[in-house]
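Hypothesis: this fold can be encoded by more than one sequence.
Test: take the structure tokens below, design a sequence, compare later.
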């Protein structure tokens, strides 16, 4: 009963990979971080990543990041909230986030 998700919604679920010092260290352990749609659940995220990158996911964790207050001079604004997904892949699989020249 695996239902194929249309290609357009796959791209809508996965927004962008999160690349920081900590996440680049996690890549060595075969874990990747992505910003995903706030309303997406773990099963939708798993199907989207497996179909987009052609990998098999071992484990997935999600975190809701709240909006934060930011100040520029006298003006106060907010960074938007988002959901972060931490994905652990099985051993033979990996995702190419950086292009080799």
């Amino acid at each position: 009963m695996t239902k194929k998700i249309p290609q357009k919604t796959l791209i809508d679920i996965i927004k962008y990979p999160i690349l920081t010092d900590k996440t680049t260290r996690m890549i060595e352990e075969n874990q990747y971080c992505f910003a995903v749609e706030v309303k997406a659940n773990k099963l939708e995220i798993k199907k989207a990543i497996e179909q987009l990158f052609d990998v098999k996911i071992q484990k997935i964790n999600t975190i809701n990041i709240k909006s934060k207050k930011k100040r520029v001079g006298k003006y106060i604004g907010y960074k938007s909230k988002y959901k972060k997904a931490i994905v652990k892949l099985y051993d033979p699989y990996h995702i190419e986030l950086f292009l080799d020249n």
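DSSP finds three helices and six strands in the chain. The first strand starts at residue 14 and ends at 17.
Hypothesis status: open.
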